[in-house]
Amino acid sequence: MNVQELKHPGLKQWVEEAVALMSPDSVEVCDGSKAEYDRMIQITIDAGLATPLNPEKLPGSVLFRSDPSDVARVENRTYIASKNQEDAGPTNNWIDPAELKKTMTELYHGSMKGRTMYVIPFSMGPVGSEIAKIGVQITDSPYVVANMHIMTRVGTKVLEVLGTQGAYVPCFHSVGKPLGPGEKDNGTWPCAPLDKKYISHFPETREIWSYGSGYGGNALLGKKCLALRIATVLARDEGWLAEHMLILKITNPEGVVKYITGAFPSACGKTNLAMLIPTVPGWKVETVGDDIAWMKFGKDGRLYAINPEAGFFGVAPGTNNESNRNAMESCKKNSIFTNCGLTEDGDVWWELIGHGAPGKEIVDWKGNKRPAPKTDKSPKGEEIAHPNARFTAPAKQCPCIAKEWEDPAGVPISAFLFGGRRPKTIPLVNQAKSWIHGVFMGSIVGSEVTAAVISDQVGQVRRDPFAMLPFCGYHMGDYFKHWITLGQSHDESKLPKIFFVNWFRKNDEGGFIWPGYGENSRVLAWIFERCSGKGKAVETPIGFLPTLDAIAPPQGVSEAAMQEILNVDIPGWKAELADVRQNHYPKFGDKLPKELYVELNAIEKQLNA
Predict the structure, then answer these.
(1) How far apart are the C-alpha atoms of 538 and 516, rounded to whole Å?
(2) In the predicted model, what is the mean pLDDT of residues 107-125?
(3) Could you tell me the pTM of the whole model?
């Protein structure tokens, strides 16, 4: 389809203005077909940007290597450009929208010379769902087109739903590397220098402008940009929730089904939990989504969730058959790998994949030949795969994908889980006493900073409320208030119950007390029972905790160990709440809802009783 065939006058005009600004050599409107996807991949192979992988090992799959300056989300170049700085809040980078648009318009001027402009109509969520939203992304990157094909629903069917007057989120994207006459990329990943990269959000006008990066969430604008930063603003204004949450389906031995969402900061095993293989006989876990949940209230007063994405954009290092067999199976074909190692036999390899690399040599993520490692570990700073190397895989290939994962009505949610990586204080699981107590728990989520984050704070607790710190498109105090308001304006008995989990408690020797992975199904079973009005529990100042006999311990976990991870550490909790009062809550100023201070005071009083 060409631009003249677009039936939406506003969309047609927007594209024509972008063409005039960015000066591409040609323009294509994406139809979402397999032939189009295959052509995008072939374009990148011919340009020397993609390496076809061994068709016997990974059929239909390719490997990309990005520029070393373009390997992850660049939070310090990500902006929320609201008219008033206060509306962006203390957790976001703010620039005046008029000033930012002026700067970026100058960068976009002629930015697509020598390239094709692709117009990608995409749906976040099943096409036509009342919970779904439509975006249109303009890009000059065939890598982005191919990834968007996997991660969203792309093409003509989206334009049909959009019609002539439908609402859409306009998304500008350019890698920021125009080509002169006869110039080619010649196998070099195109992007702009770091100080010219901008990932910008305009919440009032529902626009996304990205420039200079071709990687991940900086360039696949349906992912964090639309699905969270813009969607949180839409959700606030329209009365729903856009959250950084997995969605899983649990079936008990009697065949009863419940759906649970969970919000966890990075490096806390979110994708592993979404695709968990239970160790408890008779229980079944299936995946609806591994990263983002959009939830709206149904006519029955319950919250219904969709996964707005159509694929997985998973971190490869650390993924193996033990930690996440279902993820490994999901990316066995028709997948895009970025910044992984390449073995002599045309396979991908990464740290903690579970085995050494075959042969004598391996090509690392920078394109250098290295001796093939005989184990799956590498010294820090000498990794074969970049620590943020990724696989993009269609969700429909996941062996444990739930049959309801594309239900346009969504699935009814029974529980929210919040969690972090905490070696002390936070118990294995506790349940909020009320909705407001649960919002309080979500607002104080913290996780131990690990070596995966470049920081001098390793070992300290980094607060990441609702696991939304980099993703909330407005003031986080107002975000907390939105959660509170939703609870107050709906029947609490129909709202999801709220739980806090922590798989990462350590003993005095520094070892993990709880084995995690599939054994987490024991905790999920207790949560399932609590949502059914069962499950043994005791009330404590921090919520309901399982009784010692409520969760059968895994092999090797003693009764004393269970006692340790299911008790209330009163000195630890006093210190925790003091930190919240002194260092965390003051950041939000007078926008922090008073209800949260009331909850904080009440828990402190009970701990001191």
Answers:
(1) 23
(2) 98
(3) 0.97
